[in-house]
Amino acid sequence: MGVINRRDFLTISSAFLAGSTVLGGGFVLSPYRQGEVTSLKSDKVVKTTCELCFWRCGIDAHVKDGKVFKIAGQKDHPLSNGKLCPRGLGGHGLLYDPDRLKHPLIRKNVNGKSSFHKATWDEATTLIASRLSEITEEHGPESVAMFSHGFGASFFKTLLSAYGIDTFTAPSYGQCRGPRTEAFKLTFGHGVGSPEGLDIANSKYLVLIGSHLGENMHNTQVQEFSQAIAKGCRIVAVDPRFSTAAGKAETWLPIKAGTDIALLRSWIHILIEEKLYDEDFIAENAIGLSELKKSVRDATPEKTFAITGIPVEMIVKVARDLGRYQNQALVHPGRHVTWYGDDTQRERAIAILNALLGNYRAKGGLLSQKTYPIPKYDFPKPKKSSRKFKSVYPFAGSIPSNEIVDRTLADSPESFKAWFIYGTNLIHTLGDQKSTIEALRKLKFVVAVDVLPMEITGYADVVLPECTYLERFDDLDARAYKKPYLAIRQPAVKPLFDSKPGFEIARMLSKKMGLPDLFPDKIETYLESRLKKIGHSLVELQEKGVFVNQDSGLYRSQNEKMRFDTPSGKIELVSNKLREKGFDPVPKYTQHPENPPGFFRLLFGRAPMHTFGRTANNRILGELMPENELWVNAVAGQDMKLKNGEYLYLVNQDNIKSKTPIRVRLTQRIRPDVVFMVHGFGHTDPRLKTARNRGASDADLISHLDVDPIMGGTGMNNNFVTFTREA
Ligand code: SF4
To answer: Which residues have a Cβ under 8 Å from the Cβ of 282 and sit 6 or more positions away?
Structure first.
């Protein structure tokens, strides 16, 4: 290894890896071949919770001879209903991944050379405590930020809060669903929730706008989607690409990318002009109809056709159908919605459309959900910060991660000096990799807690190997849902290697950081104490896996008086809160950059068997989908002399080239001005032996971000690529 910057990316040498194998020296990926699994009888079945994505389905982990050999959907868990997505079924591929982080690592700089060294937990946690102490003494606890993704972060947040650190950010806000949350809050007074409060199963007419249900595999939503289809729900898919959902639709509208707000405004216009909206519902529950009507008057189908490319008769037909089904029609709010930087306004248009349909708490519409009642644990009150992080984006309900990057790069006494990163591969998540890497290089200290050696761990000073979700307890899961539930995550097997559960790591750190009494002696004590308060026991929940309350009050009753948590107490079709801060109170359409000549707009999405980096190296799932492909319109591709199946490199508008090639898929299922690829591939880290050099990474090519001025989300879809055969 040559001389490198102290924060340059580090890999672990193969010699080092060779010495780190455990499990009696002969460790194989999976204890059983796929074909053997059906004939095996489990010694025990552990009811726990999946963590291969944020959905957190209930799973039954089948264990034989101390090894998990099968994962199935938990019957009683309302998010799985006995079924799982392909990722969830292959979760033991992560558990038995030979490339997992196996013990703590510490970066050491000797004579200008930087390398990782195997460390004990005591050494690693001592170092973290002492570095955090030095940094917070010199710059204040406000100089430390924590990035996280996933449920397991909760005890680390408790720890850092008690220490006085209160800057917590999750890319799932600024890089994914934040604009939706803020738009629905501005309109209805509350967000859509996660899992979303949508009654898809009972919808009679469902409009999906760039929402790839079935590819973006949110188990329960996909189950509901199938139920809706079986019951004859009519589906409209608005998408530049003929997605899986479009394949189930009666109507595919191949919209010009970036023009969705124009289409939504036109539908609002038609619903109002033709009085197809729910007049009684709006009169009783909403404000701003006349201003809204005036503001969308110019959104005629004819003008909208010129912008979107959707024929006038189709625009009108869908609007009239929406009006016909009213309460039982639903315009899906989407999930990954950070596209163009005006995303809160697009989501506002979706929220307004749903409001006009009067589908709020109606069968087949938007629902408000409830949580299973359980008190919090009695942790000491977090230390108050004297310099609390204040976002520059007026409606940022959470801290956008890109703002932490910006604030780290800024030359100011208030810039961040240390990052604590839990379970999120920021290199592939945030977009604008250059800034992320520059910020990482500037930091005084970086801690990464992860299961796999994802790229981000290569920039850390200390890497802590957490065990997988199949080897640990976590906090109780009691998120708001249609059927309020309380679920457990518990270990199916003991932690492999020298990895540890998050609770134990946080507890070890708390002792080193001068907070010895913060956590109880073990997580079982913590869980038991919370459960006791509601008259249950840990053993009971461990046996059942989940407690479920029946849904109640999901649908509004006739003549029910509703109050919304907005300034007016009503649904706000026109937002004065936005107006007061200088934003359009009603969503307006603005044009986005056109493709430079010879370039295609780069769109990305998901595949059912892969999520983020968490599944990238999973050999079971890798067998199902080993690499991603680049969808290119067949005619456009032939014009550029591309061949189906050939491997090409991509070059973006800033002359940034993909690190790895991607296989071309010529198809008529996509517009000629865009290309599409599945996110989560193109890893180059040699430590990820399965994922390495498989497909290409969209993240490498997203060098341009359009930041939403309302809440700070990063629009990523104004990036363009062309092709080269040169390696
Ligand atoms: S949707 Fe799939 S990956 Fe996500 S929690 Fe459920 S089973 Fe796991």
So the answer is: 289, 355, 356, 358, 571, 573
What's the whole-number average pLDDT of the chain? 93
Total number of domains in the chain: 3
Residue 212 domain boundaries: 189-369+555-578
Q: Which atom of ligand 1 is nearest to the CA of 217?
A: 1
The string of pLDDT tens digits covering residues 105-124 is: 999 988 888 999 999 999 99
What pLDDT shows up at residue 470? 98
**Helix H or strand E segment including 329:** strand 329-331
73 Cα nearest atom in ligand 1:
7
Rounded Cα gap, residues 559 and 561, in angstroms: 6
Q: What is the pLDDT of residues 252-287, one digit of tens each?
A: 999 999 999 999 999 999 999 999 999 999 999 999
pLDDT of residue 699: 95
The predicted-structure confidence for 693-726, as pLDDT tens digits, reads as follows 999 999 999 999 999 999 999 999 999 999 999 8
Cα(606) to centroid(ligand 1), Å: 13
Residue at 9 is within a domain: no
Residue 524 covered by a domain:
yes
Ligand 1 pocket test target in 55, 222, 485, 620 with most atoms within 8 Å of CB: 55
Return the residue matching tokens 């859509």: 192
Q: Whose CA is nearest to atom 4 of ligand 1?
A: 53
Distance from Cα 91 to the centre of ligand 1, integer Å: 9
DSSP class of residue 150 equals S
Pocket of ligand 1 (CB under 6 A): 50, 52-53, 55-57, 84-85, 87-88, 217-219
CB 470 within 8 A of CB 61: yes
Is residue 31 in some structural domain?
A: no
Q: The whole model's pTM is what?
A: 0.94
